Amino acid sequence: MARVSAVVFVAAMLQAVIVSSLVIGGGAPDLLLVVAISLGLLRGSIAGAVSGFAGGLVVDLLTLDTLGITSLVLTLAGFWAGRYAETTGRGRRLAPLVAVGVITMLAGVFGFVLHYMLGVEVLARHALVTALAPTVLLNLLLALPVYALVRASVREPERFDRSPEVEVLV
Length: 170
Prior knowledge:
Blueprint: H1 2-17, H2 31-43, H3 45-63, H4 69-89, H5 95-117, H6 124-130, H7 132-154
Helix pairs in contact: 1-2, 1-3, 2-3, 2-4, 2-5, 2-7, 3-4, 4-5, 5-7
């Protein structure tokens, strides 16, 4: 669990400090979202939800944005990715790409709805068209490298199981 926490913390710091300011084509990549999705795919829905919540809370605290919006969106994103992996996505080669593409769109729409419900002025055209399409493409470009890096980082060390049985050689 310490490795997962370290990966989430580093991703949250990178997201808040560096990645969120990289606006390309009107959208910005969301590294923390891709990490939460990757952890959900690798460790299941509970780990995905917890990592999304923790990372979102760190980003909310660092950016002084409305507390809880990012953590709620990332909690659901990690949970959705975990449920996808637990049901139909396990063992599929394109699962990270499918999950990142679909969940990035869902997270963008859900974030817009949350901001609207809280009374924050957000232009629907900008949030759902101008910024969302480039964000989906940028996240898809990050999906496979980030998934491989997260998988290598949180992989359990191999254990050498010794047989509890005694084998008699005659």
